[in-house]
Amino acid sequence: TICMERLTAPSGYKGLQPTVRPELVGKLSRCGHIYHIYCLVAMYNNGNKDGSLQCPTCKTIYGVKTGTQPPGKMEYHLIPHSLPGHPDCKTIRIIYSIPPGIQGPEHPNPGKSFSARGFPRHCYLPDSEKGRKVLKLLLVAWDRRLIFAIGTSSTTGESDTVIWNEVHHKTEFGSNLTGHGYPDANYLDNVLAELAAQGISEDSTAQEKD
Fold first, then answer.
1. Contact 62, 53 (CB under 8 A)
2. Which domain holds residue 129?
3. In Å, how far from its chain's centre is CA 180?
4. Are 22 and 14 in contact, with CB atoms under 8 Å apart?
5. Most Cβ neighbours (<10 Å): which of 33, 92, 197, 201?
């Protein structure tokens, strides 16, 4: 899956110690998928080098996945209004604040400045049992630097700017004109699935505390 060579042939990647043969393969312990050792090392070296590895076939995460989100602040509070589709509860408002700055070694262009458009960004969750669960996991995602990244904006085309990173948020409060608001019956389940794909679930957070 990584180098597109057969497992019976040597890996398409080079550069390991000569003591490791390029045809050697390894099996991932939890999901059982098999890859060339060379390929796994190359995949790790091309990533964040954060101590985690994600199976390219089934997305099982080994270790704790962290991102490259620049420094900032995440706050939240309750507001006494309900969201469309959630008439029986109040609303959680999350406020993300990230200032512009200089890119670090983990970013696309180290030493170059980056912009941070549209901050502070306000996002909304229903104050329901499932909404509070999403909030708890978003706090973990923030701590692991997975909510935002530095890259090229899909809406403006601007490069070296702070962008959302694969965990969708609802930024519209009273309606759903843009698709970024409520009602959206599937949103909470979808965002839980997106968080799980980043290695963040109630199971994983419980394991960290143990």
1. yes
2. 73-202
3. 18
4. yes
5. 92
- Rounded CA-CA distance 6/12 in Å is 10
Q: What is the dihedral of CA 13, 15, 20, 24, to 10 degrees?
A: 0
206 to 77, 143, 203, 209: CA distances (angstroms): 24, 15, 5, 5
Q: pLDDT digits over 139-187, tens only?
A: 999 999 999 999 999 989 999 999 999 899 999 998 888 889 999 999 9
φ, ψ of residue 175 in degrees (nearest 5): -155, -175
Mark whether 91 and 161 lie in a shared domain: yes
Q: pLDDT digits over 2-35, tens only?
A: 888 888 888 888 766 667 788 888 888 888 999 9
The span from the CA of 204 to the CA of 200, in Å, is 6
Question: Is this model's pTM higher than 0.85 or not?
Answer: no
Type of residue found at 41: V
The residues, ordered by sequence, that sit 6+ positions from 205 with a Cβ below 8 Å of its Cβ are 136, 137, 140
**Is there a domain that residue 45 lies in?**
yes
Q: What is the spatial distance between Cα 196 and Cα 204, in angstroms, rounded to a whole number?
A: 9
**Do 36 and 78 have their domain in common?**
no
Residue 9 shares a structural domain with residue 57: yes
| Measured distance CA(105)–CA(100) in Å, rounded | 16
Q: Are 150 and 197 found together in one domain?
A: yes
Query: Same domain for 45 and 96?
Result: no
